[in-house]
Design a protein that fits this description.
The complex is a heterotrimer of chains A (about 170), B (about 160) and C (about 375). With about 170 residues, chain A is of the alpha+beta class. Chain A is about 20% helix and about 30% strand. Chain A has a 5-stranded mixed beta sheet. Chain A has a two-stranded antiparallel ribbon with strand order 4-5. Chain A has a two-stranded parallel sheet with strand order 8-9. The relative contact order of chain A is 0.15. Chain B is of the alpha/beta class and about 160 residues long. Chain B has a 5-stranded parallel beta sheet with strand order 2-1-3-4-5. Chain B is elongated. In chain C, helix 4 runs antiparallel to helix 11, helix 4 packs antiparallel against helix 14 and helix 5 packs antiparallel against helix 6. With about 375 residues, chain C is α+β, with helices and mostly antiparallel strands. In chain C, the strands form 3 sheets. A 3-stranded antiparallel beta sheet of chain C has the order 1-2-3. Chain C has 15 helices and 8 strands. Classes of the chains: A alpha+beta (about 170), B alpha/beta (about 160), C alpha+beta (about 375). Chains B and C meet through helix 2 and helix 3 of B and helix 5 of C.
């Protein structure tokens, strides 16, 4: 069983430019990584004999909302800032866990997909694309999963506004 | 069954055509097997042995073309509303709708921030009986069914309703 | 000269008697053999995560009920465990024991529905009625505790909403005595039935390495022979004080990891749950169940991921807090959402009727898949 610092040191010596820092915040510390190198880092985490992270527990998109709030056509929108993805990994054989975080710019969020390494990421990434708009490169089938295919906008963003009508049915109460 | 009932020998019953048709319809309302969310489990519990729907003549049928009533049990979303409209149009007349639970009456607990929830199925199809509750008890659903039977009892084949 | 054949696309639409809810399966068939299955979901997406960002922490509890509506106590339990981990709360022991009793009773009720509807899918009508008859006894117990049959709002972060009814312990012990012969009856009706075995053995075999890579948890993973249960491998609450076994699939009537194994794991889990309830009732301490509930929940800035063992698998809550009384982001890892991703792998080269058997053994609840 390894602690978060030991895993961070192992990662840092192998991928110095891809792995950034270990943030020690309350309850769950996380390691920040580069969004375009996350698939290489994930393969290393899964196959290295001291790490063996074979189970991706959860993959969640988060809207950091750390940009500037401006008024566009009377609606509050956020410009600039980032969207993040959190990965919670676990090893069923060595019983340790780690959290990774990648951040991508809000205007063009692109993150490498890990669905070919852990197949459970397949649907989680489709959901992050549907609700936040984060594009996962090299995903086998990236399309909307929960919302209808012709829905406009990404609902879980902090500056999302409801449409008035959808296919003739009134949306608000 | 009519004021001339039981005035003659046991093998004769005299009634009106309206009463006869309505009695036949309300005693054998076949429902479409359609459940959306949590209310569907209470509907299944109502048709199981403790509360038994079958003694009112209600049997689940898999196809809308063989069904008389559809019980909308659960939250209706925009993705599903289009399909419900198509199912409603496939059912032959006379057909009745029971809206079961808060979510299909008015949007339920999701009325405020639900961007994908239709706030009440009556924005899509016309409803006959509303059963409130979240989820309604099986006894409440049975009372909804009895109210629907009362509504059918007062119909006339000459005057078209709805 | 060979006959020219074409592939056909068949739609098992959102309204179907056997899809356990509003799920759409698009099947690509070559004659009767399946080439590809594509599940389409989202017909019950109720915007749970958006509601969480607008409500305070205690107001979210009724919404967590409605996600997996067949195991509502388990959902509330998971949420309470996650918020208490974020706050660092200590709970009175009576609260922990009552929570375990409720969670195990809920496990029995949920597995009864799974088994009853699985029998109905295969074609046997009687187990459905027997399962629902026994479930009514469990729902009676819940009703005298908190007033509701199915969606409870009972387990709050920091404690419980009501203490136990004075008759509860006696009625729960009577239930344990009543229920043990019913499992034997269900085995005689369904598990050893020749037709049931023919339809479920050697169908939908799930190899272990594939299961772990696809993130499968719960009875599906244990049916493939792997002893992994959050209650023993990552314990929460007071589960380490009880003595119970984890049933795994043995391949008794076919290969390890087929549909019969997953069904058998659920039957044996019900027996283990009765054991846990009896031990918890014996060890139940006295105390006040509402003393540790905080007046206002305002955690520090940070994030936590906590998980519990729901009847369908590992239910996880990822909660991010920004220091205010409402969470910044909550993401729920629903076990049915992850388990459903494996349908394409399991259904290859089976026939159309086997899709129903495989889908029933995955045991999904659409409220949790779509949230």
């Amino acid at each position: 069983m390894k602690s978060a610092e030991e895993i961070f040191n192992l990662l840092k010596e192998k991928y110095n430019d891809g792995v950034k820092e270990l943030v020690k915040q309350p309850i769950d510390a996380y390691i920040t990584c580069d969004p375009l190198l996350i698939n290489v880092i994930s393969l290393f985490l899964m196959t290295h004999e001291d790490l063996l992270f074979d189970n991706l527990m959860i993959l969640s998109g988060v809207d950091d909302a750390n940009g500037k709030t401006v008024l566009v056509d009377g609606l509050k929108t956020i410009e600039g800032g980032t969207l993040s993805v959190y990965y919670h990994l676990e090893s069923t054989k060595l019983r340790h866990k780690i959290v990774l975080r990648v951040s991508a710019p809000r205007e063009n969020p692109e993150v490498e997909s890990v669905s070919l390494i852990w197949h459970s990421a397949d649907w989680h990434e489709r959901e992050a694309f549907d609700l936040f708009g984060i594009k996962f490169l090299n995903h086998p089938d990236l399309r909307r999963i929960l919302m209808p295919d012709d829905w406009e906008g990404h609902p879980l963003r902090k500056d999302y506004a409801n449409p008035e009508f959808y296919l003739g049915i009134k949306v608000p109460y | 069954m009519g004021i001339l009932d039981k005035q003659f020998d046991d093998n004769f019953i005299v009634t009106s055509v309206d009463d006869l048709f309505n009695w036949a319809r309300l005693s054998s309302l076949w429902q479409l097997g359609f459940g959306l969310a949590c209310c569907a489990i209470e509907m299944m519990a109502t048709s199981a042995s403790h509360y038994d729907f079958d003694r009112f003549g209600v049997i689940p049928r898999p196809s809308p073309r063989q069904a008389d009533i559809i019980i909308i049990s659960g939250t209706v979303t925009f993705k599903m509303a289009i399909r419900i409209k198509r199912l409603y149009e496939q059912m032959p007349d006379p057909k009745y709708i029971i809206s079961m639970g808060s979510c299909s009456n008015c949007g339920g607990p999701y009325w405020e921030h639900g961007y994908h929830v239709v706030k009440g199925i009556d924005r899509v199809i016309p409803v006959d009986v509303y059963v409130p509750g979240c989820p309604p008890r099986p006894e409440a659903l049975l009372e909804g069914l009895l109210k629907l039977q009362e509504k059918v009892r007062n119909e006339s084949i000459v005057k078209k309703t709805a | 000269m060979a006959i020219k054949t074409e592939e056909m696309v068949l739609n098992m639409g959102p309204q179907h008697p056997s899809t356990h809810g509003v799920l759409r399966l698009e099947l690509v068939l070559e004659g009767e053999i399946i080439q590809k299955v594509t599940p389409h979901i989202g017909y019950l997406h109720r915007c749970f995560e958006k509601h969480c960002e607008a409500m305070t922490y205690p107001q979210i509890v009724p919404y967590t009920d409605r996600m997996d509506y067949l195991a509502a106590m388990g959902n509330e339990f998971g949420y309470a465990v996650a918020v208490e981990k974020l706050l660092g709360l200590e709970l009175p022991p009576r609260v922990e024991y009552i929570r375990v009793i409720m969670a195990e009773l809920q496990r029995i009720a949920s597995h009864l529905v799974a088994i009853g509807t699985y029998g109905a899918d295969i074609g046997a009508m009687t187990p459905f009625l027997f399962a629902f008859r026994d479930r009514e006894v469990v729902l009676n117990l819940f009703e005298i505790t908190c007033g509701a049959r199915m969606l409870y709002n009972y387990i709050w972060p920091g404690g419980l909403s009501h203490d136990l009814h004075p008759d509860f312990v006696r009625l729960a012990r009577e239930f344990c005595v009543y229920f043990k012969p019913k499992i034997v009856e269900m085995n005689n009706l369904l598990s050893t039935n020749r037709i049931f075995i023919e339809r479920t053995a050697n169908v939908g075999v799930l190899p272990l390495e594939t299961a772990i890579n696809y993130g499968i948890t719960g009875p599906m993973l244990r049916g493939s022979g792997f002893k992994w249960d959050i209650r023993k491998d990552d314990p929460y609450s007071v589960y380490d004080k009880f003595d119970f076994d984890i049933p795994v699939g043995t391949g008794k009537h076919g290969t390890v990891g087929d549909c019969w194994d997953r069904y058998d794991v659920r039957i044996r889990e019900m027996e283990e749950s009765v054991k846990i309830i009896e031990q918890a009732l014996d060890q139940l301490p006295e105390g006040n169940v509402t003393s540790a509930i905080p007046k206002r929940i305002k955690p520090v800035v940070g994030s936590v991921y906590a998980r519990v063992e729901n009847p369908r698998g590992e239910l996880g809550y990822f909660i991010m807090s920004n220091g205010t009384t409402s969470p910044y982001r909550i993401k729920v890892r629903g076990p049915s959402f992850v388990n459903l991703g494996i349908m394409d792998v399991l259904c290859k080269n089976h026939m159309v009727a086997d899709v129903i058997a495989i889908l029933g053994s995955v045991d999904i609840v659409l409220g949790e898949v779509d949230r």
